[in-house]
Design brief:
The protein is mainly alpha-helical and about 300 residues long. It contains ten helices and no strands. The longest helix has about 40 residues. It is globular, with a radius of gyration of 25 Å.
Length: about 300
């Protein structure tokens, strides 16, 4: 497989087919299915000195006195409303990201076949294959849960049985297995998904048959598949450099705004979000085109 040609073709598809940018931006906004709402909750832990902790503990009841004036039923209603809003946004984000994923795959495959593409065709494909792609992802990720439960459960059993040495040994082994296993599993699942999604949409297959054929394409083209993934990884590292420069530029531009008025920081932040989302959308179109081209090569190779 000529990867220089593959990358060049993906680049051409990205530039020439602007309708794909819409779907790429949607994927960028909602971050991809496994990453939805995965924010880093690293909050400050507060004062650590014993005197400061005592003072904080004494002040805590005073700080919480406002709860005495809050109607518990209204507080419960607010919490329930917040949960409903969060879940609604969560489900909508999953739908839109999966819809855009199916649309992008459908339309990039259409480009390779010489078909005319437009937003309506992509949207209809997104609606048609949304549930299949979602179920496909769930099936491939589901085996992780029992594996993680076993890896956590074994050292926990030793710990509860007061066999702390064995618990420590198994915990170390678990960490190594989890790190190595999750990396290997994510690579395999990622490649099988890329091929399986495209086979599903190209031939209008069901979930199980798509997963099966995606696995067969991966297995029969093991070396090529892994090379495609490695090149994808290398390209991601390359694109991270201009993105880092972009972040630095907006940070520098944001300093004068903040010095004039802290609230004005919202101007460069919004500008960065707009530019970053657009760049992320283009990058998604490129990657989807790249994998569609790779799928097309290995798929035609198997038929010849």
């Amino acid at each position: 497989m000529d990867f220089n040609h593959l990358i060049a073709e993906a680049y051409k598809i990205t530039l020439k087919n602007k309708v794909l940018w819409i779907f790429g931006v949607v994927v960028a906004v909602f971050g991809g299915f496994p990453q939805v709402f995965t924010y880093n909750f690293n909050f400050p832990v507060g004062p650590t000195g014993s005197a400061e902790m005592e003072k904080s503990a004494q002040n805590m009841p005073k700080a919480m006195q406002f709860l005495e004036f809050v109607d518990p039923s209204k507080l419960l209603l607010l919490v329930g409303l917040a949960l409903i809003i969060f879940l609604t946004l969560f489900l909508v984000s999953i739908y839109l990201q999966t819809w855009a994923t199916a649309a992008l795959i459908s339309q990039t495959l259409g480009v390779l076949k010489g078909e005319s593409i437009d937003f309506k065709k992509g949207s209809l494909a997104g609606e048609k294959y949304f549930s299949r792609i979602l179920l496909f992802r769930f099936i491939l990720m589901a085996p992780l849960l029992p594996i993680i439960l076993v890896l956590v459960g074994v050292p926990l059993m030793f710990f509860l049985a007061d066999l702390k040495l064995f618990a420590a040994i198994f915990m170390i082994l678990d960490i190594l297995i989890l790190i190595i296993g999750l990396i290997a599993y994510s690579v395999v699942v990622g490649i099988v998904s890329e091929f399986g999604f495209r086979r599903m949409i190209e031939r209008d297959l069901g979930v199980v048959e798509s997963a099966k054929q995606g696995w067969e394409l991966f297995r029969e083209n093991l070396g090529t598949s892994l090379t495609v993934w490695i090149v994808n990884l290398a390209l991601s590292f390359v694109i991270s450099l201009p993105i880092s420069i972009l972040v630095f530029i907006f940070v520098v531009l944001g300093i004068p705004f903040f010095m004039v008025n802290p609230w004005l920081i919202v101007v460069p932040v919004l500008a960065f979000l707009a530019v970053g989302t657009f760049v992320g959308g283009l990058w998604n179109v490129f990657l989807f085109s790249y994998w569609s081209l790779a799928y097309n090569r290995v798929s035609r190779k198997g038929e010849s």
